[in-house]
Amino acid sequence: MAASAPLPSDDAQQPRLGLRERKKLKTRVAIREATYRLITDQGYEATTVEQIAAAAEVSPSTVFRYFPTKEDIVLTDEFDPVMEAAIRARPADEPPLESVRAVLRPAVEAILADQPEELLQRSKLMLEIPAVRARMTETMTETSLLLSRAVADRTGRDEGDLEVRVFTASVMAALREVTIYWAEHDQKENLAVLVDRALDSLEGGLSL
């Protein structure tokens, strides 16, 4: 998921990070923030990993240890494990799509409130830079695997079942198209409402 703010849920549901994990998170955030600053100033193509490392006060090897490619710096966030935990915490008898909706809508609203500029820039890069859009598709596949595990456990199915794979792949594809649509329309529409519309389409099909 293209997001880096935590889900607005009870603190007890949030994973507790040790000192080492907190240091890693701090480094990841510093690298990402430096990247966005540089891209804002000079553009995506002109921004190099060496410049990012200098701005974040780390070595280029550290940047690559945390992010294999420059595209990953733009796209990688801390949302996936939190989303998985939040979906697992939903009521056991709740339909999977309702659980996804209940998690995504407040998450998007929280991200828009907490980090609007980063989200705006990220979606713009997804639209304008082919390499970023291609890598987004790859990273969403990884997110889909996490979602599949949560959905499979909640429904008593195997995560490799066709129905589970189709469901999670459909959700991720919907989120991808929402992000691109939002960027194509100059980010003027309410992103949380667009997410709801996309999930409505998955639930009810395409109305004639």
Automatic annotation (TrEMBL):
UniProt KW keywords? DNA-binding, Transcription, Transcription regulation
On whether DNA-binding is a keyword of this UniProt record, the answer is: yes
The Swiss-Prot or TrEMBL record marks DNA binding at: 48-67
Top-level taxon in the UniProt lineage? Bacteria
The residues covered by the HTH tetR-type domain are: 25-85
InterPro entries attached to this UniProt entry: Homeodomain-like_sf, HTH-type_TetR-like_transc_reg, HTH_TetR, MftR_C
Decide whether keyword Iron is in the record. Answer: no
Name-wise, this protein is: TetR family transcriptional regulator
